[in-house]
Each structure stands twice: as structure tokens, then as C-alpha cells.
Design brief:
- The protein has 334 residues and is an alpha/beta fold.
- The chain folds into three domains: 44 residues, 434 Repressor (Amino-terminal Domain); 127 residues, Rossmann fold; 131 residues, Rossmann fold (3-Layer(aba) Sandwich).
- It contains 13 helices and twelve strands.
- The chain has a six-stranded parallel sheet with strand order 2-1-3-4-5-11, with helices on both faces. A four-stranded parallel sheet has the order 7-6-8-9, sandwiched between helices. Strands 10-12 form a two-stranded antiparallel ribbon.
- Strand 6, helix 9 and strand 7 form a beta-alpha-beta unit.
- Helix 1 crosses helix 2 and helix 1 packs across helix 3.
- The protein starts with a helix and ends in a 10-residue tail after the last strand.
């Protein structure tokens, strides 16, 4: 009777992932757990034949991560979290870019279909819910950063709605009532969730929602400046602006400064993501921090657990945000 890695895990009283880490000489396993696993291997006569295992089960111990573009700097910490979790379990992350293009995304996913990789993580996707659900029935798929409505797929995101609500509530607490929002017309639920948080904060503070105070463009840097110019044309321009990304917030700040505005004094501005630039800029930009490293780590841990246990736990995990107060938002002055 062939001894499996699950038999070793059971005998050692540890998880399959821990056995995998020991077999791959991971430094993250405690000495006591390593000793338990090695003792179980000896007692059971387990011989890990990695090549044979890969040929029999078509396992590669590689997970494909597809990002829409390399322009969003917060992806770096997410990928770092992915790589850490993967390495601990004896896996590698293969990174590729789809350029937010359906045909490229499907071509990359061929690596999952032909078993070149064991699974795929989509950090934003052009696939519809029907396609995602069908793919996940036959393969190991996960969504990261961007959720898809009604997708029965493992998903890990930040609490976008709650983060936006906290940001706008802080502006209201500082006396601002005319609050603009720089959003996008991109088909992404993170954008609509953040807009929902913006609207909830207004509603709970008896401030009427005004569609004129919402500018929708893209995530491209130039649209922050365009939004600022648009808001200036309104009969009553906003005294504060919430942006759904730090890139857009930095663009608004830069444009406002170029026109002689004092940030925090003449106009208050808040972003979302807490990229490094938001803390380096002067003045520092108030923002909502995504736990990027934990997002990446969590999605890989959950996905590998699905693979090792031959299950499809398609839960949706929303990690908590952190509100970061800096000098770009100050009390409203008449």
C-alpha cells in the first residue's frame, strides 16, 4: 500500500501544508514540527518522489498570477505576500500581465487548462461570472483584489465599501458638506463598492447625494487633474475630494498645487490604497490602506489548501482596511 503525504500528516499530527514545507526545507517550520514529520516519514517509510508525483497527478507546484497591468504599485506587496505563502508550501508564483484584455487573459489561462500550472489567481478579470464559475468547476481558480458579483470562486479583497465610508465620514467630521468623488467608469466592483461607501457616509449624515459631484474617468493619472478642473466649473465647487485611488489623489494634489491652492487649507483631498508616494508627497495624503501583503498571502494559502485537500472552498474573504490620517484633510474653513 502506497503511503501518501496525507498519511504522513495524520501520523505527525500536522497539516499537509506543514509536511510539504518540511519536504521543501522551509525555514518557517518549527523544530518540533519538523522532528514530528521526519519521524512519521521514517516510521511509515514514505518516499517523496516529486517527479513521479508530478507525472501522475500533473502537479507542477506553480501558481499563475495574472495582473491587469504593472502600473498599480500596490500590486508589488500583494505579489510579495503571494510569494512568501507559496514558498512556505513548496510552490512558486508565475506572474504575467493581461493588459485588461479578454483574449490575453484566456490565452494565459491555457496554462491552467493544459496543466502547465496547478492554479490561477486573477487580480482583476475581464471574464464574466458564468465563465468564471465554469472554469472553477474543473480547475483551481481564485480572485484577488477585485470580486465578481455572484462568482462562486475563492475571493480575497479589502473591505472597499467600509474604507470609503471611513474616508468620507472623516471629511464630514471635519466640517465638509460639499464632497466630490473621483471614481471610474471601469467595470470593477471595487469602484462601485467605494462609491457605495461614499454615498452611505453622505446619507447617514443627512447630506444629499449630488451626481454633479462625482467625476468618472479611468485609473490613469491624468484623470485626477481632469477631475479637479471639472469640479472648478461647478457653481459651488466641493471643499473636499475623495479619490478611489492614491494615483488619482496625487494627480488632484499636483494640479491643485500648480494653480496655487493650499492642500488642506483651500481644498481637502483623500485617496485609497496607501501607496508609498502618498506618504512621501508634501503634504502627506490622507488615505485608506489596503493590507496588500496579507491579501496576497491569504489568497495563496487558501488556494493551496483547496489544492492539497482536493476541495473547492469558494468563500469570499474581505480583509480589514486601515484609515491613515495625514495633512491633506483638515477642518473646513468658510
Amino acid at each position: 500500500m502506497n503511503v501518501t503525504i496525507k498519511d504522513v500528516a495524520k501520523a505527525a499530527g500536522v497539516s499537509v501544508a506543514t509536511v510539504s514545507r518540511v519536504l521543501n526545507n522551509s525555514a518557517t517550520v518549527s523544530e518540533s514540527a519538523t522532528e514530528q514529520v521526519n519521524n512519521a516519514i521514517k516510521e511509515l517509510g514514505y518516499s517523496p518522489n516529486f517527479l513521479g508525483r508530478n507525472l501522475r497527478k500533473c502537479e507542477t507546484n506553480v501558481i499563475l498570477a495574472i495582473i491587469p497591468s504593472t502600473e498599480q504599485t500596490f500590486y508589488s506587496d500583494i505579489i510579495r505576500g503571494m510569494q512568501t505563502a507559496a514558498s512556505e508550501c513548496g510552490y512558486d508564483i508565475l506572474l504575467s500581465t493581461s493588459n485588461s484584455t479578454y483574449s490575453i487573459e484566456m490565452r494565459l489561462l491555457n496554462m491552467v487548462f493544459n496543466r502547465t500550472v496547478d492554479a490561477a489567481i486573477l487580480l482583476g478579470t475581464q471574464l464574466d461570472v458564468k465563465t468564471l464559475n465554469e472554469l472553477n468547476q474543473k480547475h483551481y481558480i481564485a480572485l484577488c483584489c477585485e470580486r465578481v458579483e455572484d462568482a462562486d470562486v475563492l475571493t480575497v479583497t479589502v473591505d472597499d465599501e467600509g474604507g470609503a465610508y471611513a474616508a468620507v465620514s472623516n471629511m464630514i467630521k471635519n466640517g465638509h458638506k460639499k464632497i466630490g468623488m473621483v471614481s471610474t467608469n471601469v467595470n470593477a466592483l471595487s469602484s462601485s463598492d467605494r462609491e457605495a461607501g461614499y454615498r452611505r457616509a453622505l446619507e447617514e449624515n443627512d447630506i444629499e447625494y449630488n451626481e454633479a459631484y462625482v467625476y468618472r474617468g479611468t485609473y490613469d493619472f491624468v484623470h485626477g487633474a481632469k477631475a479637479f478642473e471639472y469640479f472648478k466649473t461647478l457653481p459651488e465647487p466641493p471643499s473636499a475630494i475623495f479619490c478611489i485611488s492614491d494615483i488619482l489623489a496625487v494627480s488632484v494634489v499636483k494640479q491643485a498645487l500648480s494653480e496655487g491652492y493650499k492642500i488642506g487649507e483651500d481644498i481637502s483631498i483623500c485617496g485609497f490604497d496607501n501607496i508609498l508616494l502618498s506618504s512621501m508627497y508634501t503634504p502627506g495624503i490622507t488615505t485608506v490602506e489596503q493590507p496588500c501583503y496579507e491579501i496576497g498571502r491569504t489568497v495563496v494559502e487558501e488556494l493551496i489548501s483547496n489544492i492539497n485537500n482536493n476541495t473547492k472552498s469558494n468563500k469570499s474573504i474581505r480583509l480589514p482596511y486601515k484609515f491613515i490620517e495625514r495633512d491633506s484633510v483638515k477642518p473646513y474653513k468658510k
